[in-house]
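Problem 12. The chain below contains 410 residues. Write out its predicted structure in token notation.
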Amino acid sequence: MPEINAERLLSDLRRFAQFGAYKTGVHRPTFSKDDMDSRRWLAQQYEAIGLQAHIDGVGNVFGTPRSQRPSLLIGSHAESQNYAGWLDGALGVIYGLEIARTFAETPDCGTLPIAPVAWADEESHYITLLGSRSFVGDIEEADLDRAVNAYHGQPLRDALREAGLSGVPRTLVEPDRYVGYLEAHIEQGDSLEASGKRIGIVTSIVAIWQYRIVFHGIQNHAGTTRMIIRKDAGLATALLATSLAARFPRIAGSRSVWTTGRITLEPGAPSIIPGKAEMLFQFRDSEIPVLERLDAALRELVEETAAKTGCRAEIERTATGKPWHMDPAFQEAIEAAAERHAPGAHVRMPSGASHDAQVVARKLRAAMLFVPSIGGISHHWTENTDDADLVLGCQVLADAAEAILRSEPG
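Solution.
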């Protein structure tokens, strides 16, 4: 059985967090100097354990085993959200490195090929899930031409040039070369901590359906326009938000979530009735029938609100994802390993956030493991996980990786 080096794992996690260190977290935006330095450091670590390392044309870092057997990809994304946590993404990246090292050092596992990987821009600085989507062939060159940084507008092509990646080929998946893909991640919520569990075995990754809703009213003077004749677009948006809060709990799934992320009013002055209001709204679930039910209810409530307020409404669905279910046999391998190392302290659960695993799963068998987030905090520099849980998660994933590889012929 592979036995990870706990001290080395924790040391590497903390070393990785030095790239773009910010308070107790990191600020490592995609293709920044710190991000590229971290990727080059990873490539050096891959080479040091006998892997063939390369950084492809969108920044993905691959460690390729020198083996004819199909390998098991293990990884996550290397960049961070702005001024965010030290484990989001980095955890899975360093798990992949540590498991590859452990297998190389374990005589029993030396012929079982682990291929660590660090994806680029899962965090959407330029293109959401850029690295994994490029890998599965879901990104065209025209997409790269159009993309700009979401925060400061830099064209992606300029960022790639500054990162030294202009003209570097993108790596496309060759399914026959891989047994599948494993990813580890902090939970980014408090379900594990609240239930006293230490390992989450991800069953599915939710789809995100996102909407832009606009109400058109009549802009007018706030002091002289009688209430009975007003067509207040701001009021319409507020009524819709409260209607959704009342209706959705009655029709949602057990783990559905929904969020009004932004409301903007025009012209946005205290003495002017808003003539236009825009609302950005999203919901998430892992089951298509639930998503369709929520979609139908949203559209019905938009129409009802428009009729009540005399406003004209527009609704546009701006994002329509597809939920992805993780491979059953891979889930079983993770669960068996979790039961071995943490009896009764594991649970199967869906992921409420997007991950590279849902993209890679389009081409390869895939599964995910969660470890607890202290206080449920993520996307903030106070994000943290207990050291014992960091070590446990890596050991469980290593055992699962061995079981998966041994179950494959050859």
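Discussion. The first helix runs from residue 6 to 16. Students who got a different answer should revisit the alignment rule from Section 12.3.
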